[in-house]
Each structure stands twice: as structure tokens, then as C-alpha cells.
Amino acid sequence: MRMTRHGRRAATAAAVLTLALAWTSAQATAAPPAADSPSATAVRQYEVAGVATAAERTALARTGTAIDEIRADTVLITADEAHAARLTGLGYDLAALTAPEERGGLRAAAPSDYHTYDDVIAAVADAEARYPGLVTSQVIGQSYEGRDIVAVKISDNAATDEDEPEVLFTHNQHAREHLTVEMALYTLGELTSQYGTDAEITALLDTREVWLVPTVNPDGKIYDQESGTFRSWRKNRQPNSGSAALGTDLNRNWAHEWGCCGGSSGSPGSDTYRGSAPESGTEVGVVADFVRGRVVGGEQQITAHIDFHTYGELVLWPYGFTYADTAPGLTADDAAAFEALGTALADTNGYTPQQSSDLYITDGTVNDWMWADQGIFSFTFEMYPSSSSGGGFYPPGDVIDRETSRNREAVLTLLDYADCPYRITGNEAEHCGTA
Q: Which of 119, 218, 295, 300 is deepest in the core (most CB within 10 A)?
């Protein structure tokens, strides 16, 4: 594992950082990394030896491989036999693994452990009915298959667009990451039920406007969850011209440094396929338009953002497209504020804080776009578990309450600093015009 810089929390060599996808059953229908067919294919997890640094992980990812877990000097990947053979031919040392539960891990969840898309829409409607002054919602667009993408606003006077800092929480860009939708429902329930009772929440909602997008990728969520068995599907469900493979990785489709740096795939069959052009993914265009629509009087009203993912127990910040701490549009003051605030967020939930590229290079990501294009302090949270032994993308339902409430203080901390994130480094006078 690449050690973090400038005093970021360093994980022990034995710790496992996890990203991308868990072990996938033989019934999974996600296409293997370099294939152009969406038909069902048997895939399994492999441990790849001798991949110890961010540069080595990036080189592996550039073969079209999605990285599952990062260990001290190996990584885990998911691949079919053909892709594994291609990697072997490139000189990689692969060892096939059994399923996580056969390695002593927890049982995976059942699809019924998680709320469905329809459940989410009903929960939003219920919150509006129960808290009419506190909650409003709007359909900000439709998914590729025509489902509503909903943004929920929570504030003391939700029906009015007040001159208050706004914070955005997005969830479920990646279809199989169902725990993130549970996070959205937890936040909605906690902020509404505790307003007027909890002094901190009351003060924050009196001075902030909160936006939740509970599922960015409803088509993918439904496809992954509602057949009766999980399919380990990551992308959206949009066809790709000239290919039988379906779907774009929405978190490689944002319009900043899109496809710039080998941090995504140009193959439609890859789980990290970046799409045909920036914002070609229908759902990315919807959310990006919503964010651009929050520019009022020439000023972006959204000041802070978390994009929730699973899994790995990480707090990540820009940039992902470069290893450098600073780059065009990201000054030393900006980087210091990102690190300080990201570390403060991680201190509340026990996650590991680090710049995204400490893992490996990614491009076209939501965090990089939010910051570089819109000036929003944007973080990714990789939620529970820390490894596939905890259930990977599908942890059992009995951990949902614990692992969503685990982020309560992080959410409130971000809301607190939303008036001026530079306040955490003492630079508010210079950057926010306040002392």
C-alpha cells in the first residue's frame, strides 16, 4: 500500500484497503474487463502478486482491470479466465481465490436486505408528508431507462431558496453499492426526526440547505438487486454504439480530465468504461446539470459534497488524475484544506483519509469535476466493509444501521464547515472574507 503523505493517517501493512468490486458469482452478468459481450460469464477473484505501489496499481488498471482490494504488496481483482490469461501473458502472477465466505468471511446480504428503488421514492414522499416545512423534493431528470432521479432538500424553510451554504450528498453512482442508498435514507431520517430536538442538527438546518440524491443510478440498482439475486453490476444500463456491451462507469464520465491519464477504460465491456464523451452517461448529465443550476447570481451555492461509495472505509479527495498534491486549479491552500477537512471527517468514523491518487490514477471522476469545474469541496466516502471478508459490496443487512449511523458525525462536521471549508486551516479571512 502506498503510504499517505503529509501526516495523513497511515494504515498498517496488514490492513486491507478495498475498492471496486467484490467476488462475483458464476451467475454474475457484468462483462469482464476487456470483453464486448454483456452475456453471463463465469468470473472469480484472483490475487495478483508484486503490485505494491500506486504506480504499479495504475499500470495494472490500465490493462482494463478493475481492482477490488489493495493489500501490502498484492491486489485482488475480479476477472474471467480469458482476462486472467491475458494478464498472465503480460507477466502478472495470478493466484485464483475462493469466494470470501469460503475464506471465513461474513455471509453476503440478500437483495431483500436493502431498500428497493420504489422503497426510496416512497420514503421521500413520506418524509415530505411528515415534515412539510423541512423537506421538499424535485425530479431533476430521468435515467436512461426513464426512471426519475430525485433530489431531496432538507432545511428549516425548505420551500424557499435562502442565501445559505448548500451541501450535496450523492449516492449509488455504482449500481451494486446499495449500502450508500441506505446512507441517504439514514441521513434523511436523522436530520428530519432530530430537528427541533437535537440542538446541533437544529442549528445546522437553520443555517444550511442540504441536498440528497439517494440514487444516481436507479436503472443499475434495479438491475443488480431486483432479479432475486445480486448480479455484481457496476455501471448504468445505457447501450454503447457499435458494441453489444451495456453501460458506462458513471464515475469515470465526468467532464474534468475525462480520459486524460489512463485512469479509465475505452472498452465498452470494461467495468471502468468512461463512455463515448464527457457526460455521455445520461445520469451524469442529469446530476451535473443540477449542480450547474445551483449557480445563483454567478456564485455556486453548493460549497461541500460527499459522494458515497462502497467499500474500503476511506475518505478520499481530489485530485485523482495526478499523483501531485497540487495541480492547476488546486493550490497549496486548497490542498491543505482538503487534507485537514478530510482527516477531520475520518476522525469521526475511523476511515482512512488520503488523496484519491494515493490508491491509483482515476480520471473523469465526480470529485475532480466538482472541485475543478464548480469550486465545491468534494469528497468520496468508501463505506463499510474494509475488505471482502466483511461482505464486500453486499454486507449482511444486520450491519446497515450501525454502518450508516457511523457517518452521522462526519455528515454534521461537513455541514458545520460548509460556510467556509478553509476555516479548518485558519485561512477563512483570505478565502472567505471573514475573520
A: 218
